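Hey, quick one: can you model this chain's 3D structure?
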Amino acid sequence: MKKIILFGDSLFNGFRNHHNTTVITAGLNERLNNFAQVDNLSKSGATTVEGLDYLAQLPPDFDLIVIEYGTNDATVWGITPENYAKNLQKMIDFCKNRKIIIVGPWKANPNSETAANFIPENHKKIHKLAKTIAQKNNLLFIDLWKLTDGEKDVDKLYQADGLHLTDYGNQKLLNLITPVIKKTLLA
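Sure thing. Here's the predicted structure for all 187 residues.
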């Protein structure tokens, strides 16, 4: 059975009501059933700076890592886009002999006060850098901003905090990432 590591922040932790949940891990395990086992090593609130520190926690026997950092990097307390790019590349280099998927940063609900916690220019740069770095390394890129495509009411994706996903949003996230994970494992 293939072993998948989720490596990111609160989005992969299915953060609900100020607590981590297993909604993403369990949802992927259910969708991949006997094909792969998903382990989540994500840390809520983490930036790529913390992600670099957590690399030592990766087990030696995984087949695929899904790296999802950048949201917290783009906040007013985050880091520069240039440092984000360096940190993401270091993560990729550390895992270079494995299959890797890069997931771009998520964004705050534009209708919420949470959006003020982000530096819009940095957020756009980090989003673009994630995609560019994935392409440069011949890796698949998952664009989380596509979760809002076609949504007339984006509020239904977000919890009251304006950042984390509702049950509906988490299902859309699973629908977005599952096919890419399957494609990567079969490649």
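One thing worth noting: The chain has a mean pLDDT of 94.
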